[in-house]
């Protein structure tokens, strides 16, 4: 029992420690030690274990693993530089870093962090991608290095502020994204203290908030014209004393676009004080600008002689705020467009009387509060909701406004003046509403559609005090989304469905209730009373608007004049004399465009009753005979009220189903499908989906009643999985654990695995994407054979044992001018460079350099010309290869590229193409490197020299025709002589050599011509569906001027990544002709480096200078061996 209590005590004592994994615990120890704050954390019961997860700790630990929240300070005396690797060993949700000294790549976290805040951090540069959703930085000094947009754009929000509002702590952004195509980042928001406005050409994101720093480049305001796709742009001074500034007119000079499916710029807001302009400003110079402009702190100088300083507005402008400035009078906005619906001119010292008449009916809201306006409000303003709070106005408020003064929100629009009737509520206000619908064409997402538009119109129908709400003036039951088109006169709703609804409108100003319908029902009499020429008609679907009602009798010979106030249910009219005869008098009642003919008796006082038809024959579906109350239905309708449609079914349901004539649809017999019952249902309608069409494994072929299975499945009902391997983690030559990744499904009947001729013993459990097994000792490259469910899959040369006893060979043993590293790359001595260290280092001289011109062609090729020699590197074809090596499909890549970026900036050009008949997309980016670059691919470090050209190719989502098929990417290198001159001292015939041993980590090919050498280096690794595995390389063809190779890729279902590279250098035999033919070593600093994202091709390096005699023998011997193997 004592032992039990002791164990319980220890468990409770160490529970917080054990909520971290050992790796996370060690990581936090190292992190807090480097921050020099480890001593701030408590230990447990005097134990040496640190309690990082204490309730009072700076950390909040997760229930299973990781850190939910982190708030750590760096010791003020610490000078340690913090790297992203310092926190990469622990998962973190939200982090707060205080006073940290961070490295330039610090924010490139290994694990994506939700939110990162860095307060008073010492940051000199951000030179890598930020791997966080939200980043907040509080600077204590400026960041002088430009922040590349590509490093932050994948966040959802980035905010960079200054400590204590110091304007000197600012940043500068550079747009390094491709500008030829629109770069869309809908969720991204950017806010920062800036020294200049960045160029955002062809970048789309949500919000750009600029806090103007000190110093600030005023010339950069012109970059606002590139903010075409920034939805909201906001500008504020870091210090309120900054200014005045020139008005940023370029935000209204945006580049127009025809792309209607993206969110363009709509909103501009400024808290800046502006300078006095030299002349009136044209906000319509580009016909494309902000829909909403908020100028919140104009200042006293931004006007032209007290007038609004704008001579025109862009046609998209809807809202204009011009606040806290100086204007002598109210602008008339005669030069505005009909979309301008709201203007606020608050706090502008406006004086004098309001203009008469006011004709801008489209301007729905005009805010003139807190000014010095005098005089009265003219009735012409009734179409605009005007706010004149706190002015010096007098006289009567017009009746259109006075109707609503009982509503507090409405009354507040007029207080602070001397109006004589503001406290005398209008009891005689007359409201006359009408309803109807109309059919219109409307553009929706680029398409023209026909819709029904709902309208409320009439006299004093109400104001929209707050956007999209009429609850202040009336309530509509049932409710509809209403939009003002003309205040107090026209209210609309779009996409209305005719529902035969009678709406109830209740006005809050006087409690009056109206009943109306927009649906086109003819006026329907129920009874008519005649009393000596006074006719009272009771019924439904009448109108409150006397001007749209007419009543004629005796075949139009006499008019009954409508009197009083008609309603939805009652109309009265007066005859000047009774018709003779006065019995069975024809009467035509017309309301708007609809009419009804009926007959009445007019002798003395008499009541005429009428037989109402059921549901009024559904209006358009039939005609009511009021004498009998029976509907005469139109063609296509049946039933007592003409409400039942009659439709024939297609092909009479093929005689194997029952037709529902009310909807014209078949109910098919069991086992039959399609709209005419002509199809046959599959045995499993979901084809392996377990009853769910979302999870189905194939499509039912209704013509035959069998399932056509997707690629990963087979069987009658598509329930048996196919299988394939996309990548491998092999064992060493001693044997051991093997990990196979790919697709294996959930059914593993008779599963067996062979590596070469050896069985690989299974290790349970088996997953649908991973199989682990254990293999015996072996060596070399082998086939993989997997059998299950009666299907055998073979991967040719897909397994390579790891031989830790053999060190990779370096090319030409580094020509004894360098050291061979563990990954088979030469580390050259300082005087030498190149793959085999045979070329003199250009930094150590080398005489006059013959110039080399590199050209990136629109067909996706790269050309190099040096003197009379020209090389080309081409990505030629993508092939689908079957199990026997036969070509199933061939897709030419050369000459099929679409150029996305013709303007090369930062050395980057982009190409793309879609593979015909597939969903596969191939993208290629070519980048010219301006400085050396280190890359890591599949765990191998490679160095790329200055002047290299990096070509990145992605191949994604290729649809294979068979589960056993793979892809082969073909590349070709060729050389030509531009002007043959056999007297040239460097004249040399073309020599081609290759060394393609698939067991080698690195393989090489070379083409030599006129003492210039193109060398290609190939890594036998591929990243297949995000995992590293091996590939093989095949020699396709070679002749006296070119060589073509094929990279044999695995069955990548999502993406493949490979990494060869090429370089062009002068041979050590190169001579400087015309200068006594003295032997000199030159290096041309141009290379091609193709890094693959999808399938990454790297053309890299600098001009190799080979010692001809040594290289020729080695390459010729190996080429001969390869060709002999190929011919077997």
Tally of extended strands? 85
Approximately how much helix is present in the residues? under 10%
Shape: globular
Based on helices, strands and strand pairing, what is the structural class? Answer: mainly beta
End-to-end CA span:
79 Å
In terms of per-residue confidence, which ranges show pLDDT below 50 for 5 or more consecutive residues? 1-18, 1075-1128
Largest sheet descriptor: 16 strands, mixed
Number of helices: 5
The overall pLDDT average reads 82
Describe the structure.
With 1128 residues, the chain is mainly beta. The chain is built from five helices and 85 strands. It has a 16-stranded mixed sheet that branches. A hairpin with a 2-residue loop joins strand 65 (862-866) and strand 66. It is globular.
